[in-house]
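Work Package 3 (structural annotation) set out to generate three-dimensional models for the target panel prioritized at the project kickoff. During this period the team completed the workflow that converts sequence records into discrete structure tokens, so that structures can be stored uniformly alongside our sequence database. As a representative example, we reproduce one entry of 247 residues exactly as it appears in the project archive.
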Amino acid sequence: MKYASWFLIIILLTVPAFAAAVEEEDGAGFDDASAEGTDDFALTGPKIDPLLDIRNWLGRAGAPALEKSQQDPLKKLYDREVKSLARHFEERFGVSLQSALAAQSRPSEHRGFSAKPNPELTLEIQRISNHLSDALISTLRMDQQVPLRKYQSEMVRAKRVEQTKQKLSEAGVSVSAQQQTQIDALYARESYLRTLVVIEAGSENYDMTLSALSSQTTQKVAEVLDRSARNVFSAGSSTSEAAKQKP
């Protein structure tokens, strides 16, 4: 295993685990797949702080706050990334990337860059927003990155566990205490590995890796269940797992 991986594991083991219960308002963030997920992070301009969400996430994760010496380099990186993507985006959609990012964070009735919903544009803005956040987070110190990414992974874990319980409950399927303990352990393992994957990926795309990890967990959870419960749980499991990997 690479030295970097060992270093990440050591830090992960020293960061306290977060509670399984996650507030609903914590569901939106850098990687949120919803149309409103970028908040103020993707905005640029003199009155907008592009680092606002990073500060908020670091605070929620109990990680060290951004230092003054980190802020200017992060803002410059953000501006460079937006500039490098702007021309292709404008040629493709006929609007500036800056205005699309700004409109993304406003209520739909105030979005002026598109008269009608454009799913393709929305997906591209989501992709770019995720890329921007990953690019900035990957430059943070490890004592900032690890708690932040672990917190986000724990949000995904809590959501996945709740979805599994709800799916089985709606089907009238019950699991034993031992089975629930095994299921919880599998999702905890996934959360741990997810943190490693995202940090080691840096600003590179990690969706395929997370999708494979999620599918592996789904298969292992199904193996824990009794036959009837397994059939219920496996129904529809062939749908994409990537969306479930967003906090």
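Residues 4 and 10 are 10 Å apart (CA to CA).
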